[in-house]
Each structure stands twice: as structure tokens, then as C-alpha cells.
Design goal:
The chain is an all-alpha fold. It has 9 helices and no strands. The longest helix is centred in the first third of the chain and has 27 residues. The radius of gyration is 18 Å and the shape is elongated. The protein starts with a helix and ends in a 14-residue tail after the last helix.
Length: 195
């Protein structure tokens, strides 16, 4: 591959990443945001957006996959920096933040998600949950019988909470309740949600 071809690929990846970043914020603010407004905010033409994402559903799934990948990648980084229970709380807060973004586009995600998409995202996500839970079980912070798939199902309910101030307060209360149910002694929410 020539240097020119490599630069073109890098430029295409940068455009795609910028489109996804802008789309995540735009769709969180307004689930009906137009593709042309997203392209304009990303500083690309409509043709560039459609080359990467030929439909609204493809863009929404791209944002969804990027967020899931970020959650999966975040688990070991948090465990390396924080005690297990604090790391797990921070991770759950990040999951809830993702849920606020997903709230407005959930119907599109569900309609456009294939069985292959589910398998490609669910497996790594459940492994991240297990990693966090195993660390907490190992430190004695949660009950050893807590099941990762059960917990992920319960956490998925957070994605149905409206992303307003009352919804954010409810999310904090529910996360505290979930952690108490797992046997955590200190259920205070962490100070900052990682991005």
C-alpha cells in the first residue's frame, strides 16, 4: 500500500469516527436529527456520510456498536485504576449514560439489529460485566451467587428511563438499589462518569 492510499484510509477512518461522534451527541439531544444536519455538524458532505452509513438505521447501529465497544474497552481500564466496587459503579454509570443516548433511538436499534449484531455485541458486553463482577466477588464486595446475565438484563431497564433530570435521579436510586441487592455495603454513587 502506498503512503497516499494509507493517508486516504486514515482520512476515511477519521471522517467515519467524526460522523459517529457527532451522531451520538445529535441523536442523544434529538432522536429525529436529520442525516444532513449530522453531516454538516461533522464537517463532511452528505455523500461522505452515505458512503459510510447508507441509511439512518446503519448510522444508528454504528453509534450503538461504537458505544458497546467503548463500554467493553472501559471495564479493564477502570479495574486497573480503581478498587473493584468503585470501578464497577463507574462502569454502570457509563452504561446508564449510554442508556440516556439510546433512549430516543431504541426503536430503531431494536428494529435494525440482526441476530448477528446481537451476538457480536452481547457476548463482549456480558464478558465485560463478568469481568467487573468477578473482581467484585474476589474482593468480597458483592455476593458470589450474583449472575452476570441477570444483572445485565436488570441494567437494561435503565435504558427505558427518560433522559431528563427526574430520570437521572431515578437512575441513581435504581443503581444504588441494584448494588444493595448484590450485597455492596457502600452504595453511594461515584463522583464522575467516565467517557
Amino acid at each position: 500500500m502506498t503512503a497516499e492510499e494509507e493517508n486516504l484510509r486514515a482520512d476515511a477512518r477519521a471522517n467515519r469516527d467524526r460522523i459517529l461522534d457527532v451522531a451520538r451527541e445529535a441523536l442523544a439531544a434529538d432522536p429525529t436529527a436529520s442525516l444532513s444536519s449530522i453531516a454538516k455538524a461533522a464537517g463532511v458532505g452528505a455523500g461522505t456520510l452515505y458512503r459510510h452509513f447508507p441509511s439512518r438505521e446503519a448510522l444508528v447501529l454504528g453509534v450503538y456498536r461504537t458505544e458497546i465497544d467503548a463500554l467493553v474497552d472501559l471495564a479493564p481500564r477502570l479495574l486497573a485504576k480503581h478498587p473493584p466496587l468503585e470501578a464497577f459503579r463507574l462502569w454502570c454509570d457509563r452504561l446508564a449514560k449510554f442508556g440516556r443516548m439510546k433512549y430516543g433511538i431504541a426503536d430503531i436499534v431494536h428494529a435494525a439489529t440482526s441476530e448477528q449484531n446481537i451476538q457480536e455485541t452481547y457476548g463482549p458486553l456480558i464478558n465485560a460485566v463478568r469481568e467487573m463482577m468477578d473482581a467484585c466477588k474476589g474482593s468480597g464486595d458483592i455476593h458470589p451467587e450474583v449472575d452476570a446475565e441477570d444483572l445485565l438484563m436488570l441494567l437494561g431497564l435503565l435504558w427505558r428511563i427518560p433522559p431528563n433530570a427526574a430520570g437521572q435521579a431515578r437512575t441513581k436510586r435504581l443503581l444504588a438499589l441494584i448494588f444493595r441487592g448484590m450485597g455492596a455495603k457502600n452504595t453511594a454513587a461515584p463522583d464522575a462518569v467516565p467517557s
